Amino acid sequence: MGAYTSVPTWWNHSDSRYRLVCGECPECGAVSFPPSGACTDCHERVEFEEFEPEGTGTVLSVTVIEGGAPPEFASLLATEDAIAVAVVELDEGARLPAMMADCDPHAVARGDRVERVVRRIYEQEGVVRYGSKFRPVRE
Ligand SMILES: [Zn+2]
């Protein structure tokens, strides 16, 4: 359930959410997302070198949410039976939780190649929030 619990944290980083801006650690070279706080690898608090990743990566794990979701997902679950939330490792090395799009949530599997797309995430207080989701790369 690791992906599920980290999603609300991710929503709070609104500036990096849209473009998935990552940060490279000047100390060890590891890539963190979002580029704030301590490096995920060496745990130093550093000034990250920010960059925009290609947006392709691999699914590390996936959780399918079918009920009991946070309130902001309620309207989404009303139109879709289930939502797949994956932990994606970008090709640059950063790991982040993201919703999957354009696919059967139950068909997403560890090791799948995915690419970023900008989609409607949810509506709250009349405002539609957009952000990054990932969809399977079709060969
Ligand atoms: Zn580091």
Bound molecules: zinc ion
Level of helix content?
10-25%
The overall number of domains is: 1
Low-confidence stretches: 1-7
Strands, total number: 8
Keywords for this structure?
alpha+beta, five-stranded antiparallel sheet, three-stranded antiparallel sheet, 3 helices, 8 strands, binds zinc ion
Summarize the structure.
With about 140 residues, the chain is α+β, with helices and mostly antiparallel strands. It has helices spanning about 1-10, 15-20, 75-80; strands at about 20-25, 30, 50, 55-65, 85-90, 95-100, 115-125, 125-135. The strands form two sheets. A five-stranded antiparallel sheet has the order 6-5-4-7-8. A three-stranded antiparallel sheet has the order 2-1-3, with no helix packed on it.
Word description of this protein:
The protein is an alpha+beta fold. The chain has 3 helices and 8 strands. Strands 6-5-4-7-8 form a 5-stranded antiparallel sheet. It is globular and about 45 Å long. Mean pLDDT is 83; it is low at 1-7. The structure holds zinc ion.
